[in-house]
Amino acid sequence: MVALTVREALRDAMAEEMRADPDVFLMGEEVAEYQGAYKVSQGLLQEFGAKRVIDTPITEMGFAGVGTGAAMMGLKPIVEFMTFNFAMQAIDHILNSAAKTLYMSGGEIKCPIVFRGPNGAAARVAAQHSQCYASWYGHVPGLKVIAPWSAADAKGLLKSAIRDPNPVVFLENELLYGQSSDVPDGPDFTVPIGKANIVRQGRDVTITAFSIMVSKAMQAAEKLAAMGIDAEIVDLRTIRPLDGETVLASVKKTNRLVTCEEGWPFAGIGAELSALVMERAFDHLDAPVMRVAGKDVPLPYAANLEKMALPQVDDIIAAAKAVCYKT
Amino acid sequence: MAVRVLMPALSPTMTEGNIAKWHKKEGDKIKSGDVLAEIETDKATMEVEAVDEGVLGRIVVPDGTQGVKVNTVIAVILEDGENASVLAKMDLGGAALAPAAPAAPMAPANVAAPQAPAPQMSAPAPAAPQGRVFASPLARRMAEQSGVDLNALRGTGPHGRVVKADIEMALSSGAPARAAAAAPMAAPSYMAAPLPPGQPGAAYEDVPASNMRRVVAQRLQESKQQVPHFYLTIDCEIDALLKLRADLNARSDAYKLSVNDFVVRASALALRKLPKVNASWLGTAIRYYKTVDISVAVAVEDGLITPIIRNADQKGLVALSEEMKGLAARAREKPMKLQPHEYQGGTFSISNLGMYGIKQFEAIINPPQACILAVGAGEQRATVKDGALAIATVMSCTLSVDHRVVDGAAGAEFLKVFKGLIDDPLTMLL
C-alpha cells in the first residue's frame, strides 16, 4: 500500500497503461505542456513524448471526434475534458459516435475510448460549470460510466476503463483530486467495473453514494451512529452497469434506503435506485426510499446559496432518521 | 398562513398523550411563550407553550381527550389579519385521533386546497379510512409470516403506518393472532376491554387510570412477569448511624440529614465497589454502568415516581440530602415539575417504607435496572451478642435481584458491603 492523492492515482493509472500498451495515448486541452489543467497528467509528456500526450485546440467537438475515430481504427485514446461541463460540446460524439457504433456496425467496429475529467460542482463556478453528468451518461446503452471516490478506486477503475473494449465515461471530482488514501502497489492492481463497494457496514439503513457524496455519507454515518442509527454505506463506484445486487442485498439487510447524489433529483441515480429496490425488494422495505440530491435549480453562484442547493451532511442525516422513523 | 399546533413529544418515549386542559379559548390572542394547554404524558402533566403569535382560531382536540398521538393537529393559530374562513380549507387530520376521543367538529379534508406539499414524513395527514391498515411492505410480510393481526396493531410510523418495529414489539409482547376471516374489525389492542360489571347491588366507583398509573401498572406487571426476581434480606444495626446523624445535625442548621440519605450514600459506595450489581440485562449482553445513578422512589398523589440522583457515589451526605429534598418537592408539585431526564434512566433503585413502620418488604425491580433495595423501619429488637441478649436498633433491608444479571453471591456481597457501611458509618468517609 502507498498513500496517493486521487490526482496521482489517476496519473499513475494512465502512465502504467501507456507503458503496458503502445496503443494508449492521451489528448485534451493543456494535458501536455501545462501538465494538465488540474495537474493530473504531470510528467506524462516527459515520459511518453508529444506523439502520445497531445495538446488540443479548445474544441471539444473536434478532439472528441478525433479520439473516437482513432478508437474505431484500433487505438485506445484517453480524452481528457477540462471539465465534463465542456463535454456538452462533444456529447454527440460520445453518444452517437462512440456509444452506438458497436451496435450499429453489427459488432464490427469497437470503440475502446475513455472520456475523463472532473464532473459536478467544484466551488463557486456557477450554474454552467457545476453539473453532475452521472444521470445523463448513465442513461445511454453502450456506455460504461464510472465515478470513483477513493484514490485506490480512481486508479484501479481508470486502468480497467482503459483496458475495456467499450467507450467509458470516467467522472472525476475536482474537490477530491487532492484527497489521499492508500492504494495497492504495482501495475497489476485493477478494480472491476460494475462492482459497488460497501465502505461502512451497518444494520439500520443503507445509504448509497458515489464520488464526493461518499465523503459526506461517511460523515453523516458517524453522526448517525451517535444517535443510535447504524448506517451501511454503499459506494456505487460504477453508475453503469449499476451493481444492483450489492444494493439489493444491503437493503434486504437494513430494510431502508437513502440515496445520495449531487445531481438533480428528477430521473437521477436515486430515482433509478428507488425503482430498482421497489421492483426487486418491495417486501423488504420498511419505509419509502428517500433521495438526497441537489436542489431542482441551476446551481447558484453565491456561496451561501450554493451550499443550500448542494446536498449536505445534515440532509443525509435527516433522510436517514426519517426512514428509520426516528425524530 | 395559519399555523397548525401539533401534539408535542415531551419526552423521547412519548407516542401519545392526553389534553388535560386548554388554557386558551378560541378567539384568544396568543403571544409567543403563552401557555396554551396542559398535556398529560406517560408520567407527568406538562405545559405546552405557543411558539407563534396570532389568534387561537380553533381547538381541534378538546379538553380531556385521551390518547392523542404525537404530531396530531390539536389547534390552529391564525395570523394577524386572517379570519376563520381559512379553517374550512385546512386539512386538520382529525381522524388521526384515537377512536375513544370525542369527535371534534372538523372541516372535511379538502384535497384540492392549495396547501404547499409537505415533504416531511411527520406531517399530519388523514388517517386510513376504516378497514384499510397502512403498513410498510416489510411489516405486511412479517405480519403474514408470523400470523400477527395488522388490524390489531397501532402503527408508530408516519400517518399511523405499521412498521417493522411495531411487528417486533407485538411479537415480543404476545400479539393478538389474526382472527377468523369473518371476525369484525378487532378493537385496537391498546383500548381497555369493557369494564366487568360489579357484584349485583354492590356500590362502587370506577376511576379512570391516569397515564402515570397506567405506566406504573404496565411496567411493574412486565417486571414481575418477565424478570426472574430473587430476594436477599440483611439486618443492619443503626445505633452508631443514628448517633452520628444526631451529632452531625447538631452541628449546623444548614442541613438536616435523614437516615435515607445515609442509605443512599452507602448504596452508592457499595455499587462503586461492586459494579457487577450496577447493571442491566440486554438479552444478549449485560451492560455494566460506569456511573452510579440512583433512582429513589417518591410517592406522589396518583402514583409514584423515581427521581434520579446522578453520580451519587461522588456526592457527600449534605449534597445528597439537598438534591433529594429538591427532587422530591418538585415531584410532588402539581403539575409535576420534574423534567423527563430527571426521572428517566438510573442504574439502581431504592424504596424506603421505614417511615410507615414497615419492618421488611420486597420491592419489584424497576427495569431495565437489575436491583432494587427495599428499606424497612429502624426499630429496637432483641439481638444475641456473644451469647447474651442485647438491644439494638435494627433496620432490615431487602435486595430484589434480577437473576439474569446478578447471582446470589454477588447480591449477597453487595449487601455485606452495604451493611458494613451502615453498621459503621464512619467508614463512609473512607
Could you characterize the architecture of this molecule?
The complex is a heterodimer of chains A (327) and B (430). Chain A is an alpha/beta fold and 327 residues long. Chain A has 2 domains: 2-183, Thiamin diphosphate (ThDP)-binding fold, Pyr/PP domains (Rossmann fold, 3-Layer(aba) Sandwich); 197-323, Rossmann fold. Chain A is built from 12 helices and 14 strands. In chain A, the strands form 3 sheets. Chain A has a 7-stranded mixed β-sheet with strand order 3-2-4-5-7-6-12, sandwiched between helices. In chain A, helix 3 runs parallel beside helix 4. The longest helix of chain A is centred in the first third of the chain and has 15 residues, at 6-20. The model of chain A has no long low-confidence stretch (mean pLDDT 96). Chain B folds into 3 domains: 3-89, RNA polymerase II/Efflux pump adaptor protein, barrel-sandwich hybrid domain (OB fold (Dihydrolipoamide Acetyltransferase, E2P)), CATH 2.40.50.100; 106-188, Dihydrolipoamide Transferase; 214-429, Chloramphenicol acetyltransferase-like domain (Chloramphenicol Acetyltransferase). In chain B, helix 2 (137-146) packs parallel to helix 3 and helix 6 (259-273) packs across helix 7. The N and C termini of chain B lie far apart (65 Å). Classes of the chains: A alpha/beta (327), B alpha+beta (430). At the A-B interface, loops of A face helix 2 of B.
Question: Care to give the gist of this entry?
Answer:
The complex is a heterodimer of chains A (327) and B (430). Helix content of chain A is 37%, strand content 18%. Chain A is of the alpha/beta class.
